[in-house]
Amino acid sequence: MLFRDMANFLGLDGEPEWKKFLFRWMSLSLVFHLVTAVFSIGHHSADEYFQILEFVSFRLGNTPANVMPVELHEHMRQWMQPGIYWCITQVLQFLGDSNPFHWAISYRIFSGLFGWVSTVGLALCSRFWFPEVKTQRIAVMALALIWFFPCFHVRPSSESLAGSSFIIGLCIAFLTWRQNHQKKNWAWSWGAAGIFLGLSFEFRFQMGFMIFGIFAWLLVFGYRTGRLPLRSLAALVSSSALVFLLGRSVDWWGYHQWVFSPWNYFSYNLVRGEVSKYGTAPWWDVFRMSMTETWPVLGFLMAISIVIAWVRHPRHILTWSQVPFFIVHEMIAHKECRFFFPIACAGPILILLSLCSTRTVKLLTFSKTKSVATVWNWTWKFLVLNNLIALVVLMFVPFARVVQFYEGVYDLIPNGAQKFELFFNDRDPYILLGNPIYFYRPHQLVTTKFTHYSELKDIILKRSEPLWLFDTQFHLGSEADPVRPFCKPVYQTFSANYEKINWGNWLDRTLTWTLYRCEKTGS
Known about the structure:
Blueprint: H1 2-10, H2 16-39, H3 46-59, H4 70-73, H5 80-94, H6 100-129, H7 133-145, H8 149-153, H9 158-179, H10 187-203, H11 208-223, H12 230-255, H13 261-271, H14 285-292, H15 298-312, H16 317-331, H17 341-344, H18 347-354, H19 370-396, H20 401-412, E1 420-424, E2 431-432, E3 435-436, E4 445-449, H21 453-462, E5 467-471, E6 487-492, E7 514-518
Parallel strand pairs: 1-4, 1-5
Antiparallel strand pairs: 2-3, 5-7, 6-7
Helix pairs in contact: 2-6, 2-7, 3-5, 6-7, 6-9, 9-10, 10-12, 11-16, 14-15, 15-18
């Protein structure tokens, strides 16, 4: 009985072909997420690193408080997400794994699984959002193959985890609302929906506007129509409130004092207006960013499709939940493309909704003339091919090659070494955007600045052991002639294989983090 009710709740009852289809494509999506979690090295934005990983490092006792970002000192960063990763780290350390790069992979796997579950949730809901079987299947395939889902979902960023958690809560709430006409007691599922909605707020405070939208939709289309009993609404609200209280307790654990981080965040950024110091942009800049800061063509088309979907389907639960979030971010002067990523968490569904009629939610038919049909066929084939290329590229290409360099240095340090000295000329590799890096920094590492390469040559000739040199060029420049005979590259963010395609010497104009081994026996 329990399994039959669960199958009915998920819409998997009575159609084995649909279940097989769903299982195949969601399994493929899971593979994409896991592969991307391993290869998508680094961070998409500075906040993903400094607001998450450095907070974990601080709580582990590795990062000094005086170099932490302002969010720590203003008590406005919520600790829920860093706290989860801290727990994962504790487990790995208990198992004997002290490698921070393994920790980062585990964070990406955790975030990727969260994102994948949200993908499955959207696939389950698509059966009820689209009446045509053909459109339902297109929705499932689009969710599995959309170019940015794996690389976005595996990011240990607040935008990713908050967006995934919100979609999971939304899907549970929608599926539960749909079942209420059967007069069954689904209070447990309303509680689960509230937990995930509450978590989305604790991962990113701005999600409160999306949560407001979904509560408004449930009140208008649920409670007022009798499909949302008062006890169900109470379960939803109370579970969200419990997560909110848990969030304040986790903040106490992180800050070692009671703070109200949501208000501190709001006060710092909006009341005091500090957010505008990071730059301002007009309302339409989000569409410019969708063209210049995402995959060419695809990002801009998706942004336009989302707006069209909202206009064509004003009563949809996605519209009600996302429009308030979008409007508020448009009203704030400081804008970044990543701020709108939680909206993109439902991107494939919104693209299809933009192509569906308003009343019947069926795919629109285009002109039957031969010329228009030919243009349409070639257009969608180009878009599908472009999407698949982007999917493969973003699965394997690192997001931040500097992290590859850090891992290369980490792997070179012998076990039991007490000190590993790294020389640099004009740039300390373990300082990014003026802030020191500690999460990836080995405790044995010491960075030493030198002024002239002739000075470095004297040090090399006096040492019996190798000297390690950092440089940002693929080949050492002419100013390094005094040490050139002694130094050989042992790690580069662009490997030596790239010399085969170094047409026009583009490598010499490209920032390439390189680690050189220098010793007098190499002359």
